[in-house]
Amino acid sequence: MDVKEDHMVVSDDDTVKQDKDATNSTADRIKEGISNLHTSLDALRTSAEQMVEEEHQALKRPRLEPGPTDAVPPASGEASGF
Fold first, then answer.
1. CB 74 within 8 A of CB 80
2. Are the CB atoms for 21 and 27 separated by under 8 Å?
3. FRET partner for 12 with CA separation of 20 to 30 A, picked from 22, 29, 40, 69?
4. pTM of the model
5. According to the model, what pLDDT value does residue 21 have?
6. Which segments carry the region annotation Disordered (predicted)?
7. What is the DSSP string of 3-63?
8. CA pair distance 31, 38, nearest whole angstrom
9. CA-based diameter of the chain, in Å?
10. Alpha-carbon gap, residue 13 to 81, rounded angstroms
11. What's the sign of the alpha-carbon dihedral 16, 17, 19, 20?
């Protein structure tokens, strides 16, 4: 019985080219991932800054009516509520 062996000869140049193509493809995917991550983080930073600014504006809002502690200041020398 004769066994026929199929051999494919691959030159070093072909192997190097395939490795280089795979490396470039991987590098491109990594660059794209980093770019997407940068975009997402930039949007998150902008959103966080806006939320902090809105919170500061809410804290600075002027009061329309005096609250119970603002209505009558304690007399000098007296502690309120004691």
1. yes
2. no
3. 29
4. 0.46
5. 82
6. 1-34, 48-82
7. PPPP-----HHHHHHHHHHHHHHHHHHHHHHHHHHHHHHHHHHHHHHHHHHHHHHHHTPPP
8. 10
9. 116
10. 89
11. positive
Sequence-separated (6 or more) residues with CB below 8 Å from residue 69? 80
Q: Which parts of the chain sit beneath pLDDT 70?
A: 1-5, 7-16, 61-63, 66-82
Three-state DSSP at 64 gives coil
Residue whose token pair is 């809410």: 58
Give residue for tokens 């794209």. Answer: 32
Decide if 43 contacts 36 (C-beta within 8 A): no
What is the C-alpha to C-alpha distance for residues 65 and 82, in angstroms, rounded to an integer?
25
50-72: burial string, b at 16+ Cβ within 10 Å, e else:
eeeeeeeeeeeeeeeeeeeeeee
